[in-house]
Structure prediction request, 505 residues.
Amino acid sequence: MQQLDYVKRILNAKIYNAAIETPIDRMHFLSKSLHNEVYIKREDLQPVFSFKIRGAMNKIASLTEEQKSAGIIAASAGNHAQGVALGAKISGIKATIVMPVTTPEIKVISVRENGAHVILYGDSFDEACAHAHTIAKEKNLFFIHPYDDIDVIAGQGTIAMEILRQHKQPLDAIFIPVGGGGLIAGMATYIKCLRPEIKIIGVEPENAASLSAALKAGRCVTLPSIDIFADGVAVATIGKEPLKMARRFVDEVVTVSTDEICTAIRDIFNDTRSIAEPAGAVSLAGLKKYALQKTISGSHLMAVESGANLNFKQLQYVSERTEIGEQKEVLLAVTIPEVKGSMREFYKTLTGYDLTEFNYRGNDPLKAHLIVGINLASSCQQLKSTLNNMSSKGYETLNLNDNEFAKAHLRNMAGGAAPHLSDERIFGFQFPERPGALLQFLKNVPEEWNISLFNYRKQGGSYAQVCIGLQIPQGSSLSFEDFATKLNYKYIEETCNPACKLFLR
Prediction:
């Protein structure tokens, strides 16, 4: 479809009998700290607390009477589901929503409250989506895609229309979260037609960067695994139509870490006293990273706060990770001599510092390995001074701030290496957060294997992070790869992780 055709569809989108025109807020504190004018478009204020109502409503409005009378179906783990359910309710249409079994209860309740019939199926969006297509064919229901659809893209593009109408000041760049790509496709197409000088910058989680991968390959590619912390943008394959638009109209793509997303959630709270979901804060995390890395000042920058459907149980995890994301906490692995008084001598190097944690368990007659968390007042310069001070005293240090395994598991484990477990391998698994997930794992473990380590870490989302040690004897009747394929849980082997070698091997 041509750019002008999209612009016409956006201008004529039928969304405002369900969606609202959301405000733009200036981020006072963040503008001051970044030395730029920073704004956010408040899509968290929509009736379903997400921009998804726009695309869903516009698609529903485009249906024929025959399609409406037959009923509609969608697959979603949350925001698209709520948008379709509300749109169907307002339009007097029967809606069926297929949601993964792992979907947080608050989102399931919200969809049901809007009158939709909910079917819980599978552990992932892909499984739910496949089941929805099967039902659509069996019952002749119209399937509403969450992002790879022209009318859905046009509905999302109305955000760009509002921004250009509302924001009369200069605007240098707009940062847009990317999952399946419908939002950035609609917004970029509209903005580049009317204001081509404004930079369009997509933002993705670094472990779910489907647009970055597609742009590099020149085609849609499916990521072998994705991180689901920011579940609203955790999409393994970018949409075909969104990719076409992105290749033409998106200037750059930035990726951000979990810690940077958590810090952006805190930034939004500080300025607005509202709490964004992880996907909702992705674009602001990208804005901050971009401004700091490019040393930009005096510019006018805007991010789309795309949603606020946060599972309340995630708040503790978000809070834990915020200081590291801001580089105001450093997590270190420190090696000291295993002699009497050595811990006291080491602690002298920390005089004046605010410690956030201090973990140790003896297991080596010559060396002691500590995990130390330090609250930094002045960020990078103080960190450099701290590390230099430790090095001058002869202490070996390993910065764990970028080591996901250490942050998710090691810091919460008081243990040590087990010399007798020579055949042990360490893995980080994602368990679906549903009853029976652990039992399914245990049933699939061969009797000849031994579970030597288990650490469960709840994040409050659809999946739990689990650290598992397995003793797999040589000549086992089942290879680990075959076991993992049958189990179908995502995993990463951590046996050779430097932090794992220090504390568990």
The chain has four domains: 3-50+150-323, 52-143, 327-402, 416-503. Residues 150-166 form the longest helix (17 residues). The chain has a mean pLDDT of 90. Residues 15 and 169 are 26 Å apart (CA to CA).
